[in-house]
Amino acid sequence: MAQEGGCFCNKIRLSYTGEPSAHVLCHCLDCRKISGSSYSNNFIVPDDNFKLVSGFPKTFSKTADTGKKITSHFCPDCGTTLFRTGESFPGSVIIKIGVMDDPEWPNKNVPKGELFAPERVKWIAPIKNAEQFPGMP
Ligand SMILES: [Zn+2]
Ligand SMILES: [Zn+2]
């Protein structure tokens, strides 16, 4: 069964099927800016399992510290970043978990790793049993 999500104004809708191939928190400074929050929570699905259901996201690309290009796909009306694609993740889409419709999604899916762990905001505890990476593995 497809899991669905959308932006804050709901003009852009997406869905995915199957199990995510990865699910991580990211504590890098770019993710703070993009999310407007303290860290990001993201899962990865193969292109074939991803569907843009409605709307036309705007894109913004930046070269990451790795030297690889990464592109944010966001709603031109409400500004929500829904997903990202990049040269470090060929054939995959990185979805922001906050856009999923099911309010229980984050409770049912615990991140398995944390990227850029040393940049973690000090009062945020590591997730138990989540693998800690100094950067991008
Ligand atoms: Zn929107
Ligand atoms: Zn990040």
UniProtKB/TrEMBL annotation:
Keyword Protein biosynthesis: no
Residue span, CENP-V/GFA domain: 3-106
One Gene Ontology molecular-function label: carbon-sulfur lyase activity
InterPro entries the record matches: CENP-V/GFA (IPR006913), Mss4-like_sf (IPR011057)
Family matches, as SUPFAM superfamilies: Mss4-like (SSF51316)
Signal peptide feature range: none
Keywords, in A-Z order: Lyase, Metal-binding, Zinc
Entries under PANTHER family matching the protein: DUF636 DOMAIN PROTEIN (AFU_ORTHOLOGUE AFUA_1G03180), GFA DOMAIN-CONTAINING PROTEIN
Family affiliation: Belongs to the Gfa family.
Protein name: CENP-V/GFA domain-containing protein
Naturally occurring in which organism (per UniProt): Cudoniella acicularis
